[in-house]
Amino acid sequence: MRSDFKHLLVEQDGAVLTVIMNRPEKLNAFNDVMLQEMIEVTEAAARDDAIRCVVITGAGRAFGSGQDLTSFAPRSNTGNPPRVSEHLTKYHRLVLALRGMPKPVIAAVQGVAAGISCNIALACDLRIAADNARFLEAFARIGLVPDGGGGFFLPRLVDEVSGPEAERIGLVNKCMPLAEFEATTKALAQRLARGPTRTYALIKQLIYTSVDSDLETTLELEGELQDQAFETADHREGVTAFLEKRAAQFSGK
Ligand code: T3D
Asked: Mean pLDDT throughout 200-224?
């Protein structure tokens, strides 16, 4: 995994990869370079067995402010602008890479997460928030529909939601005082990175498929995935550790 990105900071601590979107002067708005780098790092993390948990967060006072709006002005002023849906395919690739990542992905949100940045957070498996977090779909304010999966992940979010409110409605898994935010994120990521990673990937597949399946289809998939889970070293280790009355040491295999 390279680390010389222009707009990302990438830190690896054991099996945890933390990806920090790093354009703080623009509240980490996405330009083309940062979007391409996010796709690259996300797809590389998915392939890398040494990484067993990924944390996505933002530098400075925000998680992210969505698409960089300075790029919209020239786009709408040219005679024959490219269709925005072509540009969106890049965001879709990122969303699908996050969603399909065969290991847990945590969005650690402090400050604002607006527009596509909000929907990137929603595409992650878990969200933890500082009490200064703001989730803001922002699109309608500039006359756009929610993109990057916003219409899929959260059809009912039409207005701004604070960190504490997001916890109350189940939008984030945990909200905490800003002072505890970094340590709590690290502890959660390290705990997940020590878990049965292959089984986590199967659990993600089961849960995300069940959302638009019926019970019969989900039960059938459950059997297929459990067959695969039964074959993992981590399943054998989990049972052995239980019988030996010790803590399991999962390898992610
Ligand atoms: O394919 C496609 O391209 C379409 C995809 C679209 C996806 C989208 O994400 S659309 C939604 C785009 N995002 C927004 O509409 C949000 C715009 N930003 C805001 O509404 C506010 O900045 C916030 C509510 C996020 C935060 O407000 P506040 O008061 O805390 O900060 P600020 O002062 O507005 O921003 C600080 C700086 O960041 C400021 O720059 P300056 O004046 O200090 O030089 C501001 O211009 C800049 N900034 C914030 N958001 C963006 C941005 N610059 C470019 N693009 C931004 N999105």
From this structure: 94
